[in-house]
Design brief:
With 369 residues, this protein is α+β, with helices and mostly antiparallel strands. It has helices spanning 2-24, 86-108, 110-142, 148-198, and strands spanning 29-30, 33-49, 52-55, 61-66, 73-74, 79-83, 201-203, 208-213, 220-221, 228-231, 236-243, 255-260, 263-275, 285-292, 304-321, 330-333, 336-339, 341-345, 349-354, 362-363. Helix 2 (86-108) runs antiparallel to helix 4 (148-198).
Amino acid sequence: MELLTRSARWATLLVITILLVGCNEERDFTYPEFIQINEAVYSNAIILPEYEYQVFSPVNGLIEKVFIQEGDTVQAGDLLFKIKDDNVRLNSQSAAIDVALAQASLESQNDLLDELSKEIDNAQSKLSFDSIQFERQSKLWAQQIGTRAEVDAKKLNYDTAKKQLTALQSKYNRLKTELTLALDKSKKNLEKARINSDDFLIRSKIDGVVYGMFKEAGESSNNAQALAEIGSADQFIIKMEVDEFDISKIRLGQKIALQMDAYQDKIFDGTLAIIYPKLNQATKSFTVEGTFDNPPDPLYSGLNGEANIIIGQKDSVLVIPTSYLGVGNTVQSDTGIIKVKTGIQNMNYTEITEGIDADTKIIMPENEN
């Protein structure tokens, strides 16, 4: 009997100890407060250059030389890669020779053209003389002076001179055209060869930074594989993905509050600049872009962060930390579970419009503690 009594005493003491320990493990609590609150659409964010493109080669071949490396700063027009172009180089050299030959041929025929030009001048003078003689003889014949045979002879001389002048002019023009066309054709072939040769010299399209290198000297290139990636050096955008359920809430020009992993203790302001209108069926989201109002320095392509697109704002609003809001819009107080009505909500705070006041002590839900 005494043994049972002692056991009961120890059991009672153990229960009291457990209760005391339990009372000391009180969960976190807080009180609602009045603050300014922003309603926002949340999105993960990635920082990217405002302008970027992948460098491709328009021709197939081996990369003969690489002039850049990752991290280099380049200017528009700077040489990036040289593709081996033995055949094109030979074609260009051959076209240059053709131009030289055509030019030489034109120059060598200048004496002939000059001679033809002199013959044309003489023929024009003879035609002018024969024309005057024919006209004079015709007038005399009209006055019954002279003979018909003399008129016919003058006309024959005039017609012959006219045909001779036309023949000489045609010969001159034909020869000059042939020589000029040959030179023009060879020049166009040379220009085409040089353009083709330029295809083997890959140059930067923009001022920027080399963000990625995908090929090295000695490797093959084609128009389907990128050689490098180049983007703007100091102009960046905030790229975000907005859930389709939230897309109707956002508008161009809305402010963005951005927190980046690289700058954890700072919030950066931005502005929503682009909303791409097509839904990504795989992610059920829309791509949107924002610009920095005052970007930090330095910035790097690929930095990650969290963005809040501000869609509404209220002053002096009763709020609780969002983490204290339970399932079904409930909060836990000293007196039990209380149903509340909510308004604006973001990652940090939720507006309470009905159910509790600033004097209500609320306790962190068990699954959050």
